Q: What sequence folds into this?
């Protein structure tokens, strides 16, 4: 796998782990009321989505091995293009329900590259 692919996977892993750190100890209410926290989380999701778009172009087989890849890209598009209608409950649900599988998939692929 090319170095770029490894960099994109690292960006996904690093961004997803950062989101987990950012929201540790937070609630939906505290997340919703903290503009700085929301901005940081949304930016990391944008990075994850963009990295997936680049992986799709570079290695479609790898792209398909990341669960919910299309949903993640769609979520990125909503954050960027629908910025004025973001529902914090949806962002929070994505964090709680989908982030761990993304971390697992990116970590697994990075480990395979390293071997």
A:
């Amino acid at each position: 796998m090319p170095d770029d692919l490894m960099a994109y996977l690292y960006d996904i892993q690093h961004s997803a782990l950062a989101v987990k750190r950012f929201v540790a100890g937070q609630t939906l209410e505290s997340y919703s009321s903290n503009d700085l926290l929301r901005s940081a989380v949304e930016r990391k999701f944008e990075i994850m989505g963009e990295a997936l778009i680049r992986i799709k172009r570079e290695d479609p087989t790898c792209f398909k091995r990341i669960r919910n890849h299309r949903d993640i890209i769609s979520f990125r598009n909503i954050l960027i293009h629908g910025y004025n209608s973001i529902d914090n409950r949806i962002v929070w649900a994505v964090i709680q329900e989908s982030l761990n599988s993304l971390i697992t998939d990116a970590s697994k692929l990075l480990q395979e590259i390293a071997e």
About this structure: Residues 88-114 form the longest helix (27 residues).
